[in-house]
Amino acid sequence: MGKLKVLFLLLTVSVLVLSACGTKKDAGAEKSDGDGSYELMKKGSLTFAASGVYKPFNFEEKGKLTGFDIEIGEAIADKMGLEANPVTNPFETIMQGLIGKKFDAIIGSMAYTKERAKQVNFTEPYYYSGGMIFVSEDNKDIKSEDDLKGKKIGVVAQSTYEKPAQTLSDNIQYYSSDVVALKDLTIEGRLDAVITADIVGYEAIDNDFKIKEVGKPLWVEQPSIAVRPDNDALREDIDKALKEIIEDGTYDEISKKWFDRNLLDLDLEGVELLE
């Protein structure tokens, strides 16, 4: 009987050890979407980042993130069967945040460029936007990009507008928010011009900023959703969900809510796409 008791105890301990190992493995799986095909920072949720200071695309209102980017992210998460978990990160360090696994994706008006694509993987574009020069309403000196030589230009650091601005002038003022830069245009002596998205500038004009556009867009950029290269299965599912919200009319509804038009409805023939 003594030997049988010892054998029974050994079997019991073995079962407990195996159970404990299984529990540890299951806990680790909480970083996946349930079937293990891709990694999520929080099980059952799509955690995506935006700067939170890029109105009307992403901004805080009454303590909550809202805007076009945020609603697109929410619609995509819904199609994927996930909860939307939008977070903020300064734009100048947002790629580092993604690579450092602070969030799953960037849905924050980050345009695709070949340089950025060396570090992250991008989905198809989820809207098109033109890079535009804006000046104060009473500025009569700047009528084209050729007039910007030596002028003080405001741009958001690490944005797609930074390098073009540097080719036009050696006097660059960096900002963390396009809205603040455009506001500085209205204060005498602060800035001569700002280069930002045409949509953002027009939104500022609609909100009584005393500014105006100069000429036509310098180029058209392709804001896309970014994920880490080692999580490309997530990009594939996001692309699939994006296609679905475009096809079922959800995208059109969100776009027209914020801009009275579909931001993907643009004739790209003969247009220079920023790469």
UniProtKB/TrEMBL annotation:
Lineage: Bacteria, Bacillati, Bacillota, Bacilli, Bacillales
Signal peptide: 1-19
Domain Solute-binding protein family 3/N-terminal span(s) in chain numbering: 45-262
Cited PROSITE patterns: PROKAR_LIPOPROTEIN, SBP_BACTERIAL_3
Family: Belongs to the bacterial solute-binding protein 3 family.
Protein known as: Polar amino acid transport system substrate-binding protein
PANTHER family the UniProt entry points to: ABC TRANSPORTER EXTRACELLULAR-BINDING PROTEIN YCKB-RELATED (PTHR35936:SF34), MEMBRANE-BOUND LYTIC MUREIN TRANSGLYCOSYLASE F (PTHR35936)
InterPro entries: Iontro_rcpt_C, SBP_3_CS, Solute-binding_3/MltF_N
